[in-house]
Design a protein that fits this description.
Blueprint: H1 2-20, H2 32-37, H3 39-60, H4 62-78, E1 81-85, H5 88-103, E2 107-110, E3 125-130, H6 136-148, E4 153-159, H7 163-167, E5 171-175, H8 191-211, H9 216-222
Parallel strand pairs: 1-2, 1-3, 3-4, 4-5
Helix pairs in contact: 3-8, 4-8, 5-8
Length: 238
């Protein structure tokens, strides 16, 4: 079965030029096929690579991360409006930490969700996420926000060299490059960076809660108690 899959994969790769025209299709490196057969080892190497990217990002932007902790804490304690701006998987990655931010008291809205983002006249903040930092729809939203008001604080996370993206943020966290000595063997497009987005932002939310003295009961009171995602309500602890 595995030989059949490998043969089929090779045929698809060789046929791409016929389907797409004059396209340079990268070939598998020597040993890659054998590496894919050791899926357990590949998953461990993938996890280690993402971990090292997170650590590298923290080392590069410890000051900005500390600033983001303070901003997130203020958003939670003041019940601020927070808009999550992104596209595709990057928006999904930022939405997980934003869910916890809502548990902390912020009023969170996701771009292109059923419930629209509030007018900028209401102030608040934006969490902008883009693995590449060049996503046009994200840059357009940030430019519009800057044209409308300076009262909306923007915390952005994207590839460390994303100059235009960075210029539009009040606080910018640049994602460190994939470490040369710990390549992700199971990479598909920008998925490593999207996991870095989710891991870092979620850690910042929890750190903000701890700095603000959020105990378990406060997180539980902020959690929804209707539907299947509990039981997290305080009554279950009595």
């Amino acid at each position: 079965m595995m030989n059949y899959i490998q043969q089929l994969s090779a045929r698809i790769r060789s046929d791409l030029s016929d389907v797409l025209g004059d396209v340079n299709v990268a070939q598998l490196e020597a040993g890659e096929t054998e590496e894919m057969l050791d899926i357990g080892g590949a998953i461990r190497r993938r996890s280690e690579s993402i971990h090292q990217q997170v650590v590298g990002t923290v080392n590069l932007h410890s000051t900005e991360i500390t600033q983001a902790v303070d901003v997130f804490l203020r958003w939670m304690t003041e019940g601020s409006i927070v808009r999550v701006v992104g596209a595709g998987r990057a928006r999904l990655a930022a939405s997980i930490p934003a869910n916890r931010l809502a548990h902390g008291g912020a009023r969170v809205y996701i771009q292109d969700d059923i419930v629209p983002m509030p007018h900028t006249i209401k102030g608040g903040g934006i969490i902008a996420a883009s693995a590449s930092g060049t996503t046009k729809s994200v840059l357009d939203v940030l430019r519009s926000a800057r044209e409308e008001t300076r009262d909306v604080q923007i915390v952005g996370i994207a590839k460390t060299g994303a100059a235009d993206f960075r210029s539009l943020c009040d606080i910018f966290i640049g994602i460190a490059a994939e470490p040369l000595g710990a390549r992700n063997p199971l990479r598909a497009l920008a998925d490593s960076e999207e996991y870095v987005i989710s891991l870092l932002l979620d850690a910042i939310v929890v750190a903000a809660g701890r700095k603000g003295g959020f105990v378990d009961t406060l997180w539980r009171l902020g959690h929804e108690n209707l539907g299947p995602t509990g039981p997290y309500d305080t009554r279950w602890q009595l």
